[in-house]
Amino acid sequence: MAVKDAPAVAAPAPAQKSAPQRAMEKLGLVRDIDLALHLPLRYEDETRLTPMSALRDGDTVQVEAVVREALIQGGRRQLVVWLVEGRHELLLRFVHFFPSHQKSLVPGALVRARGEVRGGFLGREMVHPAFKVVQPGAPLSDALTPVYPTSAQLPQAYLRKAVAAGLRRAPLDEVLPRGVVPRGLPGLREALNFLHHPSSAASLAALEERTHPAWQRIKFEELLAQQLSQLTAQRERARLRAPSLKARPGGLHEQLLAALPFTLTAAQHRVSNEIAADLRRPQPMHRLLQGDVGSGKTVVAALAAAVAIDAGWQCALMAPTEILAEQHFRKLLQWLEPLGIGVAWLTGSRKGKARTAMVERIASGEAKLIVGTHAVIQGDVHFAKLGLAVIDEQHRFGVAQRLELRHKLAEQKLEPHLLMMSATPIPRTLAMTYFADLDVSTIDELPPGRTPIVTRVFADNRRDDVIARVRDEVNKGRQVYWVVPLIEESEALDLQNATETHAQLSAIFDGVAVGLLHGRMSSADKAAVMAEFTAGRMSVLVATTVIEVGVDVPNASVMVIEHAERFGLAQLHQLRGRVGRGAVASVCVLIYTSPLSQTGRERLKAMAETTDGFEIARRDLEIRGPGEFMGAKQSGDALLKFADLAQDEVLLERAKAAAPGLLDAHPDAARAHISRWLGGKMEFLKA
Fold this sequence. Notes:
This protein has 24 helices and 22 strands. The protein has a 7-stranded mixed beta sheet, with no helix packed on it. Strands 12-13-11-14-15-10-16 form a 7-stranded parallel beta sheet, sandwiched between helices. A 6-stranded parallel beta sheet has the order 17-22-21-18-20-19, with helices on both faces. The protein is of the alpha/beta class. The chain folds into 4 domains: 19-43 and 146-209, no CATH class; 48-140, CATH 2.40.50.140; 252-443, P-loop containing nucleotide triphosphate hydrolases (Rossmann fold, 3-Layer(aba) Sandwich), CATH 3.40.50.300; 453-610, Rossmann fold.
């Protein structure tokens, strides 16, 4: 008798994740330690009840009272509920509500409601309060109720349970040796338990301002992990080997210095010497060259390139935009080509045979200096002998691009030297944290002949006054930038776009050449417009922020920025730096649209008060925080979740001082601490 085959049993399908689970993963809440370190944004005080007789407008309080009446009112269907306590009444108003609200908020029900009290047409009311129906004598909470950072798919109640469970399970043993943590701070588990469930006696101000000792412990831990990771990266790099690049007597470096049509400033000499000393060492240089707009960083990079090329190696210079890359290309070609140095040009728009020819010149070593955008690090580009990589405006590249560059540089046996340049000066606390593994060189003086730039702020109802000033400058033979933030109509933003503004100004300045430049133009069209403006054949250039960096037209004396409140502070400072590049008195005009937000007001005030790039950077860091300041948002992770660089400098100093000894004497403890706090983010810190 034949035996029938048993029916195949299908493998169980993987369980579908719920919306809250997917939302938790998106927030990075994967490990128990992630949940334990997901700290509250603020707290609600549900530990006490406020009698209705003591209510004051503007207070956020919790009341307990009986429902007298509940009904649906008005054409827009609002649920209104009257609570009564003795002779006093309070109205609860729900503009959006569910059937469950109507079922629970019935006459006679005892309700606890928490919200902001305000005066209304029918007396005092709370709009959309948090509420629950309770039994008489139900106990109050004995701890402040945490409110966590969350998303629409992740209700607070679900998140509170998940965090409480993660906090119970998370391994929170003390891994730091005695004496590392500042005295007077609680243990890690004690600090976290307190921050998730503070007692009703805790100071709300100390919690929300993050000055409580429990907060100080968490911030110290985070800063220490960050310092340890940077120090680890620095030491790993010190073990790597790089080519020793030395300038020859009478070689390219000296020839370039002699051929330059200007004399270097003392600051340029100093930083050039610092870079040359690094290049001579057999360890890879990792240096940040910072200097204000127009301080002359490009020539310092050219001198470093000359040293590398003279020693028989290639140099790659990478810029974030084609316009900036082309600006560098033209300058470097002008300085280096007469010395017999082959320069290659590589951007995303260069395709076909021209690109193939460039890639072949780079691979053969014929091209000694390679200038371009991120196209320089694409997969098909291979260097013969790359000795030096220069990245301009490095914070403008995403974290992923910076990591890609590091991996690209690691293709050969010897690591290239790395020079990063920034016209956004790095405040001291930022240099101590995110750039702790870098050596920093600063050009702190401008070349002679630069004129101070006066900054004026106007409301948009004074646009005619600005146009009159522009007309005066054009009549004197000067040139003007007019910058706008968008290039086409947007329903979301009521902004004048570049195309419209160009048409308006062309009509107003009849007989004057008015150009248009924006990001959606082809590279050839952009280059043609810039060539006309640079040559002085165009008086007014209407542009988006593609002209933010690198453009150098000494005859341009006015920079007008429309909707200035929409731009970041560093961006405004960079745009302002496009004028004042010659001997002509220059002005930057910021036109804003009311009403101004607090952030917008702070930005415009800073611009009007100072032209010092370091002071601008300090204020920008205060306004935006380090993640946006550094262009680190692309990583999807805030660089510091808890510590505040403006407020926690003392803790930062302690963490910086403790890191080397901890790494030397207790390497296992240091590794465990880094893993707890950073998990898989170590790569981003290396970028």
